[in-house]
Amino acid sequence: MREAADLLIEKLNGLAPQLGLVLGSGLGGLVDVVEEPVRLPYSELPGFPRSGVTGHAGEIVAGYLSGLPVIMLAGRAHYYEHGNPAAMRPALETLWGAGVKQLILTNAAGSLRKDMPPGSVMMIEDHINFSGANPMIGEGSDRRFVGMTEAYDAGMRSAISKAARESGVDLHRGVYMWFSGPTFETPAEIRMARLLGGDAVGMSTVPEVIIARYLGLRVAACSVITNLGAGMSAGELSHQETKDMAPVGGEKLSRILTRLCADGLPEG
User: Fold this and answer.
1) Where is phosphate annotated to bind (predicted)?
2) Which of 2, 26, 158, 218 could form a disulfide with 153 if both were Cys (CB 3.0 to 4.6 A apart)?
């Protein structure tokens, strides 16, 4: 991590962003509005993951978003690609080593609520780790016992809510339930998820939240809704549907994040 962080700091050439963003499906276009961008492919950073999912660029983009210094991870590695829930640990440790204090994670997700249709944006208030995997397995110190009571920072959630109002975006709130993937859930699993208190389902983000909290970062996360869960609408689910619908909610979430940066980071 130290080698990668030192290389990143050198490439940033004095830019010192405290906000990091992980861009999921539909958010890749956000890098195009970054001013004075510095781009660095993951392949040039030791230990960084390689994402094999279409729509995930695999590069760091740093610069200014609405005047705020930010650093973005355009693309992520998923548990279902490698069987390693800690696949994103080197990347997040590198951001932490480069001075990032706050992290916003984004993803594409399936809705469990009819009132939250495809194209919506949901701010994650809590999660259910249904996969059973955990990136802290194998960590040798007592730091592995990460407290998750306040995994999603209240101050950051309040700032995102304010930015959504100012942007005119209807922001939903709910619980994200992590399934391992890569297969989509069955209708029975969706019924179970609703009974357990889930509002959206997806295949990422939760291990990154755990790693970020382990590192002491303040965390927030939002989902772009791309589909209703299995059995809630006619037809079979597909990754193409995710790719087609992600830009719709992605545009809304981009407006929120741009406004958030214009307002400045929350104190705390």
Assistant:
1) 25, 56, 76-78, 108, 204
2) 218
pTM assigned to the model: 0.94
Known catalytic residue at 227? yes
Catalytic residue from among 42, 51, 56, 86: 56
Specify the CATH number for 2-263; select among 3.90.1150.10, 3.40.50.1580, 3.60.15.10, 2.40.50.140. 3.40.50.1580
Active-site residue 177, yes or no?
no
Domain boundaries, the chain: 2-263
| pLDDT tens-place string over residues 58-94 | 899 999 999 999 999 998 889 999 899 999 999 999 9
Concerning whether 172 is annotated as a catalytic residue, the answer is: no
In the block, which residue shows the tokens 């980071």? 265
